[in-house]
């Protein structure tokens, strides 16, 4: 299966005083890409997860590696893959690359746990999510 990717542009509200992508914004842009992945690739939009299925997926670990700056106005692509699907957790891997050159800018490893919104306790990943996530699982080394 082809890797899911979403194209974005560094906006004025994304940069710091020297007009490069402000480092905390990388986490936010990764979240936007993940939300798009759920909506477009998995066909399980987050509002449906929250309201209809009464589950949430809070982040429990986030690792970001910074390799190159992105400047105000530059386009970039965020590739989202599923690295691992556990019983209650899922690990996503993301790569941010400059659209123009393909240069790797950031890597993100994002671990989330599925919880009940009623109890705020971890729950097993619901079957329809497990199946959709598993279809997008990337083999190690790919």
Could you name the key traits of this structure?
single chain, 142 residues, alpha+beta, Thiol Ester Dehydrase, Chain A, five-stranded antiparallel beta sheet, globular
Fourth-tier CATH superfamily name:
Hotdog Thioesterase
Largest sheet: 5 strands, antiparallel
CATH architecture: Roll
Following the backbone from N to C, one meets helices and strands in this order, namely EHHEEEEEEH
Distance between the termini: 11 Å
Classify the beta-strand content into a percent band: 25-35%
CATH topology: Thiol Ester Dehydrase, Chain A
Tally of individual helices: 3
Q: Could you tell me the radius of gyration in angstroms?
A: 16 Å
> In the CATH hierarchy, what is the class?
Alpha Beta
Number of strands: 7
The average pLDDT score comes to 95
Helix content class: 10-25%
Low-confidence stretches: none
Coarse structural class: alpha+beta
Principal-axis shape: globular
Query: Number of domains in the coordinates?
Result: 1
Strand order of the largest sheet: 1-4-5-6-3
């Amino acid at each position: 299966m082809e890797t899911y990717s979403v194209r974005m542009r560094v906006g004025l509200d994304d940069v710091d005083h020297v007009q490069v992508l402000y480092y905390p914004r990388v986490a936010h842009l990764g979240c936007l890409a993940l939300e798009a992945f759920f909506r477009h690739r998995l066909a399980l939009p987050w509002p449906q997860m929250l309201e209809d299925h009464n589950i949430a997926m809070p982040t429990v670990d986030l690792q970001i590696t910074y390799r190159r700056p992105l400047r105000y106005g530059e386009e970039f692509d965020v590739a989202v893959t599923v690295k691992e699907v556990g019983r209650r957790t899922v690990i996503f891997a993301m790569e941010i690359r400059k659209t123009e050159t393909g240069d790797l800018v950031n890597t993100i490893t994002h671990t989330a746990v599925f919880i009940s919104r009623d109890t705020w306790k971890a729950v097993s990943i619901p079957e329809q999510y497990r199946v959709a996530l598993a279809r997008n699982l990337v083999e190690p080394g790919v």
